[in-house]
Write a structure and sequence with these properties.
The protein is mainly α. The protein contains nine helices and two strands. It has helices spanning about 5-30, 30-60, 70-120, 135-140, 150-160, 190-205, 220-225, 225-235, 240-250; strands at about 125-130, 185. The chain has a two-stranded antiparallel sheet.
């Protein structure tokens, strides 16, 4: 793949991500609805933290208490803390839903972009790997090139570099000495994935709007909301098992 081709993909991915960040900020994150949700979330978080601190002080060992607290007062604060945790979860889900929707529409655009580039680079060797990828990785790197031999790979490589001679001794773009298998040919999909992961992340870090702490787990945050818990319970799904599974896979 030539430098201009790589630059073309990087520029396209970076431009779409930049525009999506700017549009999301103007249309969603600077809107009255999102600002109101974030402010409500921050206030609820402050109330929850205050109640949690008060309950912890009352439940402290007797010698460390500033004053005696009855069990009735402790139970009252415990119920209050539970209500405030549920309220906080609901508000966090609302904030996370805004961010999820802001990421949904750009995903459709990136899918369309992938289809366009995939059609343009269909059946073309865009790079040569200095190693033979393992089977799982090869499904991505060799996507669209199955059934090719080393000679076919070399011919396509020469053509992609603008050469006409497709023989091993061609001087326009001879195969590197470490290329011995057709599986070392790399199709467009792998390059696109690498560009998307790196470029999108850097652009989003520079121009994106991150969710506030406590509402930054995306779908995971929405699953913690009381409404989601009720829906899962209705369908016979154990919310605690789902939570443990999420922790196990780091989601």
């Amino acid at each position: 793949m030539t430098v201009s081709d790589i630059g073309k993909i990087v520029f396209a991915v970076a431009s779409i991500e930049f525009l999506s960040c700017i549009l999301s900020r103007r249309l969603i994150f600077q809107g009255e609805s999102y600002t109101r949700n974030v402010n409500s979330f921050e206030r609820a978080k402050a109330r929850r933290d205050k109640t949690a601190a008060s309950l912890a002080a009352k439940e402290a060992p007797r010698e460390k208490r500033a004053q005696k607290s009855s069990q009735k007062s402790i139970d009252k604060d415990a119920k209050k803390l539970q209500r405030e945790n549920e309220e906080l979860s609901s508000l966090a889900a609302e904030v996370a839903r805004k961010h999820t929707m802001a990421n949904f529409y750009p995903s459709i655009v990136f899918l369309i972009l992938y289809r366009i580039f995939a059609a343009e680079y269909a059946g073309k060797v865009v790079a040569l790997l200095p190693f033979q990828p393992f089977n799982f990785l090869q499904r991505i790197t060799f996507r669209g090139l199955s059934g090719m031999s080393v000679k076919d790979v070399q011919s396509l490589w020469v053509q992609s570099m603008g050469g006409q001679d497709d023989t091993i001794s061609g001087t326009n773009a001879p195969l590197p000495s470490d290329v011995s298998s057709a599986s070392q040919a790399c199709a467009f999909a792998f390059i696109y994935v690498l560009c998307s992961l790196s470029v999108k992340m850097m652009v989003n870090m520079a121009f994106g709007t991150p969710p506030p702490p406590g509402a930054d787990e995306g779908v995971g945050t929405m699953m913690e909301a009381p409404q989601s818990q009720k829906i899962m319970k209705k369908f016979g799904i154990d919310a605690d098992e789902v939570k443990e599974a999420r922790r196990a896979v780091g989601f």
